[in-house]
Amino acid sequence: MKQVTVTIPATTANLGPGFDCLGMALSLYQTVTFSTSAIPGITIMAEGEDAHKIPTDCTNLVLKSAEIIFDKIGQRPSSLQIHQKNAIPIGSGLGSSSSAVLAGMFGANALLDSPFDNSQILQMATDLEGHPDNVAPAVYGGLILGVQAEEGLIVERIPVPPLRMVVILPDFHLLTSAARAALPRQVSLQDAIFNSSRLGLLIRALETADYPQLHIAMQDRLHQPYRIPLIPGMAEAFEAAKNAGAAAVAISGAGPSLIAFAPDSHTEIGAAVTAVFKQAGLNSRTWILDVDTGGASIQTN
User: Fold this and answer.
1) For 229, which DSSP code?
2) Partners of 285 in beta bridges
3) Is the peptide bond before 40 cis (omega within 30 degrees of 0)?
4) Mean pLDDT per 10-residue run, the chain (301 residues)?
5) What pTM, to 2 d.p., does this model score?
């Protein structure tokens, strides 16, 4: 019998102007244990946050991602038990699908004595997800700039000091495909310049925990103006977070989570945003999180 336990952090992507290229790992995790035994077949168990939304059949994303590794090597265990302990809410804009993809790939890789290194796993996960902004920080931890170039995937880890964030998730179902479909196919030169200048400033502000600069740096014109109207109460939630002490606010990933950066007043920010979503008819969940700096971890027994 062999047992592998994989822990993958949640992530927040885009961070305003860093659309599809910038992401940060958060201190919220999915832990998946893979076990083999003499009993043939595949069994999947799920517990924790949104466990009822995690399929336990062949459509399970952890299993499907593990199968990619098994197929590439041409080997697979005759028995496999997968036990997911999930703390990352599903469909939240916090990288739940990326965590499942990476858990499956790293778990299968470890079961086969690690034929692939981290960079190869990351490339396969990026190919599956379509962009590196969630999977790269989930692999390496911290703040990551990921660039897909003709020469291959370029990943730059940007050191940041300890930062604390508030994440508020309204009880609203927003498909990533719907959030992406709302975006225009063309943007103005002025909006492109607006975002490119703020991306540089954003990276510098996060590197130095410069909260006054962060207020300006996290502004965006490429995706958030088109996604905010899709989520009831989101525009008012942005203002409520700022009025309660947030230095900068963004939609996390494609939403519907809101993420707010602040040096303090985190509980007050969460309460203010929760009240706004309540007025819009939505219950919500709140987390106060730090930057995860370790990324994916794998333990083999």
Assistant:
1) G
2) 169
3) no
4) 95 96 98 91 96 96 97 94 97 96 98 96 94 96 94 94 97 88 95 96 96 96 96 98 98 97 97 98 98 97 85
5) 0.95
Q: Which amino acid is at 156?
A: E
Structure tokens belonging to residue 11: 């992530």
For position 200, what pLDDT does the model report? 95
- List the one residue out of 62, 179, 102, 126 whose CA is nearest residue 54: 62
Q: Is 3 in a helix, a strand, or coil?
A: strand
Domains and CATH numbers, the chain: 3-159+293-300 (3.30.230.10), 164-290 (3.30.70.890)
Cα–Cα distance list, 282 to 122, 170, 190, 233, 239 (Å): 36, 6, 35, 9, 17
Phi, psi of 33 (to 5 degrees): -110, 130
The region, left, alpha or beta by phi > 0 then psi within -120 to 50, assigned to residue 98 is: alpha
Residue 84 tokens read as 């997911």
Q: Which residues contact 86 (CB under 8 A, 6 or more apart)?
A: 30, 31, 46, 47, 48, 49, 50, 51, 54, 96
- Phi, psi for 80 (deg, rounded to 5): -155, 125
Backbone φ/ψ region at 228: left (φ over 0), alpha (ψ -120 to 50), beta:
alpha
Alpha carbons 47 and 120: distance in angstroms, whole number: 29
Phi then psi for residue 96, to 5 deg, are -65, -40
Instruction: Specify burial of residue 105 (Cβ count, 10 A radius: 0-12, 13-18, 19+).
Output: buried
